[in-house]
Amino acid sequence: MGIDDVRSAIARRTDVHLDWLRTLCRIPGVSSRRYGIDASVQAIRQLIEEIGGKVQVLQMADANPVIFAEFDGDGERTLLFYNHYDIQPAEPLDEWTVPPFEGVVEAGLFYARGAADNKGDLVSRLAAIDAWRQARGRLPCRVKFLIEGEEEIGSPSLPDYLRTYRDLFQADACIWKYGNRDPAGRLEVGLGLKGLLYVELEVEIASSDLHSGYGALVEAASNRLVRALATLRDGRGQVLIPGFYDVVRPPGSEVRASLEALPFEDEILRARYGIRRFLRDRIRTGALATLLLEPTCTFCGIESGHTGEGMRTILPKQAKAKVEFRLVPDQDPEVLVRQLRHHLDMKGFPDVQIRVLATQRPHQTPINHEFVDTVKRAAEEETGREVVLYPTLQYSGRMYELAEYLRLPVVSVGVGYWDRRAHAPNENIRLADFDETVRLMARLLQMFGEEG
Ligand SMILES: [Zn+2]
Fold it and tell me: pLDDT tens, 85-94?
């Protein structure tokens, strides 16, 4: 059965749906500052109840609440949407060309902090549900929402929520919070995320800074930390910690084949960021395989001694570095912490302290899972364009816990595009993408219900 009546409802209700998005974007909830959380939760609760969903606000100690919502529908199957209501701060404010919390529409773009990450996605899904209810009075499948409020600080409480409320969240498949379109307009459907270990390394060599004349006798903390860091990774990007690659699974033939089919505009990437060269001079498919399938070790920041104008002849007492590892299946961040400790000790740096700031495990939904096919077909049929499957993306998130605790496939698709400027000034979505995604989600609900 066709869904022209649902599409008509979407077209008729576009202004209402954009008003919902504008309302949510006017209420900033910044998790890193514990600001605006209650107001964000109440606004979303009210919106979902208005559309006919049942809402429970779940609250665990020392955590931002999770919004759980449920919509009744035909059939036995349940689709779970994962989203978040928290946002990044809007600073630097003077780099925005429009006010960040008003939802200004200009030349087909909707601007607001949180529009692309992640309220546009949340509203597109609610809009699809609304259109079904407007057109038919009910949904073609059951739907649940898990909307968390700590995504922008690494989702520290999500594993606990998932363990505690496992039965409540139970579903047959999950749509991850976002998805993009590439510069050629192709919709990117993502099936996985890398894991993450983010640590702070710190070394202290004295109780105060010294005159650098003592350099012949005392090793500066800065020298010492840089030497320790240099043992972690070589110039080709290979991580030198023993055991690091032991459990890395080589990609299966399906994943390798999917990479061959993926577009990768290395020249666009180079030009956009002014990148001088890629590691190992990778290009095209080789660059893409490296980007998506290889683990990383990046020194995100190094701090020590005098870095201001001119010279100061000091020997710094202390040095710190933020070091990030992006992990691939089946690497485990907890194991890596122990390997890192052992490695530093063996290299003569037992005094370099490790403080763990975040851990996330990698995850990939199998590319041949039937739900992947359902999402791909819904997207292709509704957009009329080519859809590209990414076996994994280069980013991280708590996909592992969602997939493993709830035992379901997780697929990423949404309203974004390559220049959505998430986390940056002038964050935006394209109105045409929003509209297309609402239709895509409406179609997916139908196919998911019918194929159960
Ligand atoms: Zn974000």
Answer: 999 999 999 9
CATH 3.40.630.10 for the 4-193+363-450 domain, yes or no:
yes
Q: 418 alpha carbon to ligand 1 midpoint, in Å?
A: 14
- Rounded average pLDDT over 62-73: 97
Architecture of domain 195-248+295-360: 2-Layer Sandwich (3.30)
Q: Please tell me the distance between residue 88's alpha carbon and the centre of ligand 1 in angstroms.
A: 6
Q: What is the pTM of this model?
A: 0.91
Give, to the nearest 10 degrees, the angle between helix 14-25 and helix 431-450.
110
Q: Are 450 and 74 in contact (CB under 8 A)?
A: no
Task: Please give the distance, rounded to the nearest whole angstrom, from the Cα atom of residue 69 to the centre of ligand 1.
Answer: 22
In the chain, domain spans = 4-193+363-450, 195-248+295-360
Side chain identity, residue 429: I
d(C-alpha 235, C-alpha 189), whole Å: 32
**pLDDT in the model for residue 266:** 82
Average pLDDT across the chain, whole number = 95
Bridge-partner residues for 148, per DSSP? 84
pLDDT of residue 287: 85
pLDDT in tens, 324-359: 999 999 999 999 999 999 999 999 999 999 999 999
Q: How far is the CA of 151 from the centre of ligand 1 (A)?
A: 7
Calpha distance 189→373 (Å, rounded): 11
